[in-house]
Amino acid sequence: MRDTYRQKIITWLRESEAELLDQHPALESRIEQFFDDFFQPYERLYGDRPEFNKNIHRLFRQIAAGLRKRNTSLLNIDRLRSEDPHWFQDERMIGMMMYVDLFAGDILGLDNHIDYLRELGVTYLHLMPLLATREGQNDGGYAVTDFRKVNPRLGTMRQLRKLARDLHHEGISLVIDFVMNHTAREHSWARKALQGSAAHQDLYLLYDSREAPDAYEETLAEIFPDFAPGNFTYVPSLQKWAWTTFYDFQWDLNYANPRVFEAMLGEMIYLANAGADVLRLDAVPFLWKRLGTNCQNQIEAVVILAAYRALMRIFAPAVAFKAEAIVAPEDIM
Asked: What angle (nearest 5°) sits at the alpha carbon of residue 101, between those of residues 71 and 107?
């Protein structure tokens, strides 16, 4: 079956995207190399869905659209890192993590200090959360309202793109936090859910009564019991309970819905095209919920990341993932 689906994608590209294949001659070979790595986990997650075939084509149409927007300098990095897939493990990689505002005020200030980073020998720069976030309490920037905008206090997406180009020119890779488990309730998807869109409500974990939440709560831990107790928040305008693992203003995404997988791939592609070399994947142990467990580190969470990783290798071999691992202290031993 995998061979059949892979061939369907290649045939579609040859027939409908011949120009794209001409511009990206390595694309077909990358599909041949990594399609199975994508298909096996994706089928495990969504193989029983009636639109399984259409969903796969939608994912690859996103990849095609993203490649048309990927600039030449990033494509050159893709080519180089295809030949050196373990580039991030090079002994010359020297990492630095910072908050943009505390280091240089904003992105423009940081851009003006790249020479200092170069003098330090930095080759891997992790910028703590800098995407658009909600006003007021925002979990340190992890309550994202738009994955395609920068927090206005720090700058603009255009400035971030320039920063990425300037860092690349000096041999420095850019790392950006990508929050996978949830969005802020002010995100456009959540706003549309609040306006009554059933499709957008299905992107989140919303419940009509306390029956399911109460059943889950029997085995769930509270992440912030002192100031954000519980894992569910009542939404009066919807008369539903939203799964809110961290704070009441962060709604957990429903990865059992393949449209969530598709939508988040689109956000990854956008940030990769903005110049991110590494996406630091936040809160990934919480991606999959299973009744009777603590809903952390379920095997499906690993499977989701495996499918994304294979798709990213097809789209942009220059981009790596760094996933957050969360294990309770008593479980470490």
From this structure: 25
The reply to whether the predicted model has a pTM over 0.85 is yes
Q: Could you give the CA distance from residue 7 to residue 302 in angstroms, rounded to a whole number?
A: 26
pLDDT band at 2 (very low <50, low <70, confident <90, very high): confident
- Asked about 324 being catalytic, the answer comes back as yes
Which one of the listed residues 43, 119, 282, 330 is annotated catalytic? 282
Short-list 64, 61, 10, CA closest to 32: 10
Q: Which listed residue (170, 177, 324, 330) is catalytic? A: 324
> CB-hemisphere CA count at 13 Å for 101?
11
Residue type, 244: T
Mean pLDDT of 137-145: 96
Per-residue confidence (pLDDT) for residue 332, from 0 to 100: 66
- Packing angle of the helix pair 299-315, 27-46 (nearest 10 deg): 160
Cβ 150 vs Cβ 156: under 8 Å = yes
Helix residue spans in 47-113 (DSSP H): 52-69, 72-83, 100-104, 107-111
277 carries an active-site annotation: no
- For range 100-113, the mean pLDDT: 98
| Structure tokens that stand for 153 in this block | 């206090």
The label of the residue with tokens 């549309």 reads: 192
CA proximity to 60, closest of 314, 319, 316, 320: 314
Beta pairing, strands 278-282 & 250-252: unpaired
Instruction: Say if residue 242's pLDDT is above 70.
Output: yes
H or E, element range at 216: helix 211-217
Q: Is the dihedral of CA 189, 265, 251, 133 positive or negative?
A: negative
AA identity, residue 222 = E
